[in-house]
Amino acid sequence: MKKLLFAVFAHPDDEAFGPSGTLVLETRSGTELHLITLTNGAAGINSESHIELGTVRLAEWQAAAELIGATATHHLGYDDGCLCNTTLIDAQQRIARIVRDIASQHGGEYEVEFMTIDDNGITGHIDHTVASRAATHAYYTLKSEGLALSRIRYACVSRDMFPTHNIDWIYMPAGRSLSEINETVDARAALDTVRDIIRCHHSQRGDGEAHLAAHGDQVAVNHFIIRT
């Protein structure tokens, strides 16, 4: 039976800096991966003064998706930094429609899994929270319709990595305790690929290189909260 994985994030680099190791392992095992980003990341770092940063970042995302092994990518076109209740309602409907359309092409011989970011936003970014909640709503809507959905996995960070909350930018909660984490995936066998995926996002290389330097091979160790 074919496994369809829909990974929903707010910005083009969220899955790269987050659970890219797990996504690589999934596609290498035969999972059909669909990456969904709500925005083009146009409000991100623009140290090279690109006139159309969003276009640049989507091209970087496509390059990263190819390394991950994604079957398809879906950009929903919302404004970076402006996600809210209104966009959440629209996004959850559009995500559900994407899943229905793709599932219908598989003739019933499939199972569906979702992946998104921890609904605490990890960094506190409201866009992250909106993406997570839109994915969650779509998941439970489709499940109530009878689609073969198995689980939704929320990529989170451990308290070992982020032991306390942080207020350097906007409020960022501490990492999740071991009692809250349901699954840990060690993808260090794909570490070189994970590094390359992160570096695809060249426009955001300051954040990317800081992430790699701070966490070493742990960038390929991913933690999840799981709901069914």
UniProtKB/TrEMBL annotation:
<dbReference type="InterPro" id="IPR024078">
    <property type="entry name" value="LmbE-like_dom_sf"/>
</dbReference>
<dbReference type="InterPro" id="IPR003737">
    <property type="entry name" value="GlcNAc_PI_deacetylase-related"/>
</dbReference>
<dbReference type="Pfam" id="PF02585">
    <property type="entry name" value="PIG-L"/>
</dbReference>
<dbReference type="GO" id="GO:0016811">
    <property type="term" value="F:hydrolase activity, acting on carbon-nitrogen (but not peptide) bonds, in linear amides"/>
</dbReference>
<protein>
    <recommendedName>
        <fullName>PIG-L family deacetylase</fullName>
    </recommendedName>
</protein>
